[in-house]
């Protein structure tokens, strides 16, 4: 039997509102007679330490119960190891979970942990900071920062925050290289994605695959009163490639130069970073449990 550890973030939005998932995890362990326990995070970044500790303790499956921030922190402790990452996605966007077909906690996420199969996926790093779904700069990072400070979150608050920031944000110019081509462009949004979506079925990188050894860079050059609504529609319809405001590149390594240091986000968590960004893929570096059918 695989030794398993659940890492529960009591502060992620869903868990703070619905702490029953902690009891649900404990009941699941009892019902299935698993060799497993549950630990709680006590502070930001603690989940990475707990995941590393779980590997040292011989756990073959380490499960995050939380949102994208918890996913990022737990997976950061597992990347490059043979331990399998399990995800009970309960954040506001769940981009990687949706891409991989991992259901929510009420729809079979726990069952997937014992009845699913292992997929081996790529992960990314920007200036040494790991990301699993997407990283971004520009408006993208600005929104992530504002969104993280909200108490009520979800698609509706995301849309409100986005619209509130949209017309004040001034795009910067970036020099992007992927080793083959270079692109100097103003960018309103600049995202490097592993999966095809941010979350909530908002497709920033249609066609992206998590196990092709490549990352997908999308630039949205401008957003204004005229193109914002059509662009938003394209994002949800997987049709951004038809927009004249969008450029895309694919690669296993990108450098991005900007005028000054500033915000970036990794899976929705924001950080201050240098003006130069070095972004690489770590091919097939994370083992993750997905439904047998996906
Ligand atoms: N015990 C804790 N006290 C305070 N913060 C914590 C604790 N444990 C984890 N965190 C932090 O909570 C933050 C939010 O977690 P997470 O992203 O999983 O939830 P969320 O923000 O509700 O989800 P999403 O980002 O998908 O909307 C993370 O940045 C993490 O570092």
TrEMBL record:
GO terms for biological process: phospholipid biosynthetic process. Its cofactor is Mg(2+). Keywords: ATP-binding, Kinase, Lipid biosynthesis, Lipid metabolism, Magnesium, Metal-binding, Nucleotide-binding, Phospholipid biosynthesis, Phospholipid metabolism, Transferase. The keyword Hydrolase does not apply. It comes from the Bacteria. The keyword Kinase applies. Residues 1-130 form the DAGKc domain. One of its GO terms (molecular function) is ATP binding. GO terms for cellular component: plasma membrane. PANTHER family: LIPID KINASE YEGS, SPHINGOSINE KINASE. This is Diacylglycerol kinase family lipid kinase. It comes from Rariglobus hedericola.
